[in-house]
Amino acid sequence: MHKKGLLGQLIQSFCCLPGVGPKTAQRMVFQLLQRDRNSAKALAETLLQAIKEIGYCQQCRTLTEYSLCEICADKSRDDSTICIVESPADAWIVDQATAFKGHYFVLHGRLSPLDGIGPDELGLNILEQRLASGNIKELILATNSTVEGEATAYFIGELAAKHHVQASRIAHGVPMGGELEFTDSSTLLHAFNGRRNLDTNVA
Amino acid sequence: MHKKGLLGQLIQSFCCLPGVGPKTAQRMVFQLLQRDRNSAKALAETLLQAIKEIGYCQQCRTLTEYSLCEICADKSRDDSTICIVESPADAWIVDQATAFKGHYFVLHGRLSPLDGIGPDELGLNILEQRLASGNIKELILATNSTVEGEATAYFIGELAAKHHVQASRIAHGVPMGGELEFTDSSTLLHAFNGRRNLDTNVA
Ligand SMILES: [Zn+2]
Ligand SMILES: [Zn+2]
C-alpha cells in the first residue's frame, strides 16, 4: 500500500533513526501527519536549521551553532579542569548526570592506528596547546572502557604528565543497582581489583 | 549543557514523536548530526514535502499526495469489497498483514455522539453513495474492538443491510501465540463464545 508514494518514502526516511524499525517509523509518520502537523513542521525546520548551522566548538570540539559552545563561553565554569570524552553525546550525558562545572574536550573518536586515527585526528594537538598554557590543573579521562578507549586514556594521561598536569580516570565497576549475578566477569574483575576502603574503616 | 541552544531545541522537537523521551531524542539528534547529515537532510525535506502535499483520497479518505490513492487507482484491485478501518495507519497495517486485494474506507475516528462525531464526520455519506451504486458486494468491518468501535461497526452493518450489501466483522480472540494465562478476561470470553468447529470434526 502506497509503497512507492511519498508516505512510503517518509516511513523509509524515519528508519534511519537509531532504534527505529519499519513498524515504529510507520507509527511516527502517521501520528505526525494525522494529529500533529505543526510539531512535524517544527521538527523538520529545526532539523534543517541545525544541519546548516551546527558545527564544532573551536575550543572543545563539541557540537554547537556558535564558534565557542555555551560551556566554553560560560565564564562561571572552571576552565582549569577538562573532562575528555569521545563524543558530543558523552559530554552532554556527563553534564546532565553530574555536578561537573568544568570544561570538556571532545575527541570525536578514539586512537585507532589501524584505521588511521592518530593523535591529530582526535584534536590532541589542540588539547596539548591548552596543557602547555599552564592554566590546566586536571584532566578527567572519561573515554569508554573499551580497549581503544583505555589506550586513548593512557595516551592522554602521558601527555598530561609531560605537561605536569594531573590526570584522573573515571571509575569503572558494577553499575549502581546492578547485581553481581548479572555483571560480566571483566567488569567484576575490575570492580574487585579497584575496591576501596570504606570510610568507616579508616580509623 | 547547550540547553538553550539549537541542539536543545532539536532534542525537544524529537520528543514529539510517539514513544520518544528525552534520552532517545538525544541519541537520535546526536546520531543524525554526527554521523548521518545526509539522511537527516532527506528526512527533514521529505517531511516538509509530505506536510505540504499529503491530503486525503477523495474516494477512501486515506492519506495520499494524489486525489485518488494508489489503492483506489489500482485497476487490478477488487473494488467490490471494501474494508472499513478507523485510521490510515490501520489500512496500511491490514494491507501489509493480509493478502486482501480490495479497497479501503477510512473513517478517521469512530462514532462518538457526545464528542459530536456522527455519521457525516466519519464520511458515511460518501460510503453510502458507494453502497447505493450497486457495485459493492461486501463490507469488511475492521474497526477496533472498543465499545465505540463495535458501535460503529454495528451502525455501518445496518447501513450495508439497508443497501442489501453483505457485511462481515473481523474475528476477535486470543492473539496468535498468545497464552490463555496472559489474555484478559473479556477477550477470553469473546474467544470462548466465538469458538468454531474444527474442520476435521465436520464429518
Ligand atoms: Zn566548547
Ligand atoms: Zn483511496
Automatic annotation (TrEMBL), chains A, B:
It holds the Pfam family RecR_ZnF. The keyword Zinc applies. One of its GO terms (biological process) is DNA repair. NCBIfam families: recR. GO terms for molecular function: DNA binding; zinc ion binding. Keywords: DNA damage, DNA recombination, DNA repair, Metal-binding, Zinc, Zinc-finger. A zinc finger (C4-type) spans 57-72. This is Recombination protein RecR. The keyword Zinc applies. PROSITE patterns: RECR, TOPRIM. Belongs to the RecR family. The lineage of its organism: Bacteria, Pseudomonadati, Pseudomonadota, Gammaproteobacteria, Methylococcales. Residues 80-175 form the Toprim domain. May play a role in DNA repair. It seems to be involved in an RecBC-independent recombinational process of DNA repair. It may act with RecF and RecO.
